[in-house]
Amino acid sequence: MQKYTGRYIFALSIQNEMSKAERTRQFIIEKTAPIFNVKGYAGTSLNDMISATGLTKGSIYGNFENKDEVALAAFEHNLKCMFTAVRVEMDKKSTAREKLLVYVDIYENFLHHPFPAGGCPILNTSTEADDTHPRLREKASDAITSWKNAISGLIKKGIVDNEFSSHIDPEETAISIIALIEGGIMIGKVTGKLNYRKAIMKAVQKMINDLE
């Protein structure tokens, strides 16, 4: 039978404690992420976080330095959920055009996909991320850049595979697609008219089909 030294047992204890802390941290993120995405940073209170997690203030802030830290982690979680939903659908497609059209399907019918509660976290955070929330604004900016790069990469692949015209500017087209998608979501949300969003998503669909 293997013998364990006191130091080894202590190390195991520390590892178990760290994993428990990480599990608690992840629990807080998962429970508060939908609230931040729906109510925003300013609208989410400590009581909201306590109610969602069932934890005390001390337990929450024992795992995060402050509300800002929770909000940043929640944004990252919501962003990961959004990009995962897109990637899962894209993996079912073969051509660059088909993969790009996944954006149209998901953002037109995001309630039918495992999308973050409250809609697009990039839009929700961008509209609130002013000079009073520089770290959130930076996160939102980085997310837009990553999204733009992903779309641009698909367009470049489409050009290489002779799916799309070589005269297309991938960067310009990518940011235009994002602007239309986010604008469509914003207009539909503010006006309450889903047909506006659908109309704009049709414009995105036409833009993608016209890349050929």
UniProtKB/TrEMBL annotation:
Domain of life: Bacteria
Keywords in alphabetical order: DNA-binding, Transcription, Transcription regulation
Domain (HTH tetR-type): residue spans on this chain: 22-82
Cross-referenced PROSITE patterns: HTH_TETR_2
DNA-binding region: 45-64
Keyword Transcription: yes
One Pfam family named in its UniProt record: TetR_C_13
The UniProt record lists the keyword Transcription: yes
Protein name: HTH-type transcriptional regulator YxaF
Naturally occurring in which organism (per UniProt): Dyadobacter linearis
Taxonomic placement: Bacteria, Pseudomonadati, Bacteroidota, Cytophagia, Cytophagales
Encoding gene, per UniProt annotation: yxaF
